[in-house]
Amino acid sequence: MITDKPPTPNLGAASCCAIRARSLRLCELLRGCSSIKLLCFVEPNPLQLGHKHKTEMEPVTLSILQLLNQHPVIAAVKDTESLNAALESDCKIISVLYGNICNIGAIVQRIKKAEKYAFIHVDLLDGTSNKEIVINFLKIVTTADGIISTKASMIKAAKAQGFFGIHRMFLLDSISFHNIDKQVAQSNPDCVEILPGCMPKVLGWVSEKINLPIIAGGLVCDHEDAVGALNAGAVAVSTTNTGVWQLKF
Fold this sequence. Notes:
Blueprint: H1 13-31, H2 34-38, H3 57-70, E1 73-77, H4 80-88, E2 93-96, H5 104-113, E3 117-121, H6 133-141, E4 146-149, H7 152-160, E5 164-170, H8 174-178, H9 180-187, E6 191-195, H10 200-209, E7 214-217, H11 223-231, E8 236-239, H12 242-245
Parallel strand pairs: 1-2, 1-8, 2-3, 3-4, 4-5, 5-6, 6-7, 7-8
């Protein structure tokens, strides 16, 4: 049964293994991109990058990956109440799973004022279409750092506008798993989010299949789920569970 009861933040051997696994995974990913390595010391403070978009994506990408390595819990918010809690939490990245074209600018502004990164799940934004023009709109009216979408075309458009692109994928069966390569080739994301995120074995398969950072999202309900996902190769977990937000790694 899923509850909002905060888990006991006991950092045993499992958490230590999760930290090592996540750090090794990040090193492997960074070694695969020489342009990112050369920019390693250009932006030493990743929180300074969120105030405006960069013309080059590489330093932004690197800083977010570094930030995820240090703070691997992403607060996913679905209403104003959960946003208020996320702003008070230690989570450095907030995924916005609600809002509309009238209030999304104000929502992102609150996140940026708290010196946190803002990712917008564009598929869940009311008042928009499924066309890429919505990305242009978000570029104009918000100072968001990243875009989340299940649609390859949206992620491709987001990256063209300088956003950090997270391609969200639901792995429901073997067909969806074997289709990952095709989707990644179409969207060329900075990161993929795999749902549900409480399947360590499947996350391990994905980690071996693609050379991209993985976020585990959906049904990450407690310390065990989070550690299992990180040990399996995920660089971070994304959850609406406020108890998981309190975990330290």
